User: Fold this.
Amino acid sequence: MADWIPPEPLVQRAPHLVKGALNGSLILEQPRYRAEVERLQAFLEAPGPVALEVGVDHGTVLIAHARERQDWRWIGLDVRRRKIAKAAPHAPDNALPWAADARTVFALALPAARLDRIDILFPTPVTNPRHMLFTPGFIADLRRALRPGGVVTVASDVPGLFAWIAEGFADWEAAEAPWRGEVRSRRERVCRRDGIPVQWGHWR
Ligand SMILES: C[S@@+](CC[C@H](N)C(=O)[O-])C[C@H]1O[C@@H](n2cnc3c(N)ncnc32)[C@H](O)[C@@H]1O
Assistant:
């Protein structure tokens, strides 16, 4: 497979609106989603460290982490509603799986300096610029959401995508890999099975 190259960036006509699935930022103003944002805010009111995983798929890593580390709270985002609906019944009380676009959530729903950890495992190597996750704006939103010393982890088996992401974190500090449990994500299991190299980045 040819390596990934970034799609041409979108011309942002209304910078206050976040591009994304589910109509981007406007979605959170609808009553149905307002309730979901309030649920997030209530979840974040409890004291203690908070981790957020982007692109949780069926939530296997999220749920395993939440079961093992009950002193943390774990938020899991995925744009695919059906996957989140399957994960939700298995989530313990300290986990919040949420069907939402991470770009919208980071830009509009998360308070500043509340997260201790953000994991983005095997982000999709998109070709449509509308679906781009790692834009400079998104990386700025990650920075805003983290507490001082909080760590972003990214894993990818797509060298061109990883290089693009690493460039976005060029002015961050390299960090130690945070703790993780034994359960591996679907893509990581495929990479292990097929001997595909995976690159990891940890930045604070
Ligand atoms: C390549 S899959 C990797 C899934 C899983 N993390 C793994 O390692 O197997 C990427 C996942 O990210 C989700 N995703 C893509 N863009 C997203 C976004 N903007 N916000 C939240 N989830 C997103 C996709 O629906 C998909 O489940």
